[in-house]
Amino acid sequence: MKIQNNIRSIAIGSFDGMHVAHMKVVEAVDAIVVIERNGGYLTPGYKRSLYTDKMCCFYFFDTIKSLSPEDFVEKLNEDFPRLERIVVGYDFAFGKNKAGSATTLRELFDKEVVIVDEICLEGIPVHSRTIKAYLREGNIYMANKLLGRHYSIKGRVIPGQGLGKKALVPTLNLKVEHYQLPLEGVYATQTKIGSSWYHSVSFLGHRVSTDGSFAVETHIIDKDIGMVEGEIILEFRALIRKNRKFDTLDMLKGQIEKDIERATALLNESSSG
User: Fold this and answer.
1) How far apart are CA 222 and CA 66, in angstroms?
2) What is the rounded CA–CA span in Å between residue 65 and residue 59?
3) Rounded distance, CA 47 to CA 32, Å?
């Protein structure tokens, strides 16, 4: 049995990142239809709803990828019986093998279709793929600029290798899934535990100076937060340095102390700016 709704206008797309261009697309609709794929997200799943007050409706790609453009539009009409307006980006593609375009949608849907032109910031087209590319090269400043917010990931606290607290600095180790991770390295971050935010310095990448395993870990600066369980959020502010190997633990510890000093300066500057 289908749930009846009174939604009259929708925006359709992947909306991965909920970046500044997405906000333009969704500003004048009742609901967002998210085409959900798998992996490498800026904002996985329901987390898109954290950045908008619009209702989010999900179509899982695997369940609709075989539909022809005509069948897809028929599905929209069935799922949104009062639909009067659809808003899409200029590069919207839909239907099996991406056979349909934004222009095709305008031809098939018998009411209003609004096609939003490409949106640029300082001459740079705003796309999720562009933001991901900036993240992969560690350019947090530009990724955040195109997002219109600080890039963040959520992870579950897990046991670490036990070396940090004993020989280096204590860290919270995280299991992070589905997100696009930035370049391997050390970052000035904000960490949210419960309802509180803390200045932090975070590492993600392979522990090339110790056991070689991949890790995402964060050190809370100048705070003893005790035992932490469940999920926490990391918010990326700036890249401090790329990941590299140190010959001894003493050399690594010395560099971590410098990283903490650098992160503290950057975060204090950001807080006062």
Assistant:
1) 54
2) 10
3) 13
Q: Where are the beta strands (DSSP E) in the chain?
A: 9-13, 31-36, 55-60, 85-89, 93-94, 100-101, 112-116, 120-121, 124-125, 152-158, 172-175, 185-193, 196-206, 214-220, 231-242
Task: Work out the pLDDT band at 144, boundaries 50, 70, 90.
Answer: very high
Q: What is the mean pLDDT of residues 167-196?
A: 93
* Residue 170: count of CB within 10 angstroms of its CB: 13
CA–CA gap between residue 154 and residue 177 (Å, rounded)? 8
How far, in Å, CA of 181 to CA of 266, rounded?
Answer: 21
Say yes or no to pLDDT of 57 above 90.
Answer: yes
Location of structure tokens 């056991």: 211
Amino acid at 222: D
- Domains within the chain, CATH numbers bracketed: 9-118 (3.40.50.620), 150-272 (2.40.30.30)
- Hey, what's the torsion of the CAs at 198, 53, 14, 72, to 10 degrees? 160
Closest CA to 191 of 182, 201, 178, 181: 201
Number of H helices, E strands in the chain: 8, 15
Enter the pTM of the model. Answer: 0.89
Say what the pLDDT of residue 69 is: 97
Distance CA 87, CA 27 (A): 10
Structure tokens that stand for 68 in this block: 């022809």
With vertex at residue 21, the alpha carbon angle to CA 143 and CA 29, rounded to the nearest 5 degrees, is 140
1 pLDDT band, cuts 50/70/90, is very low
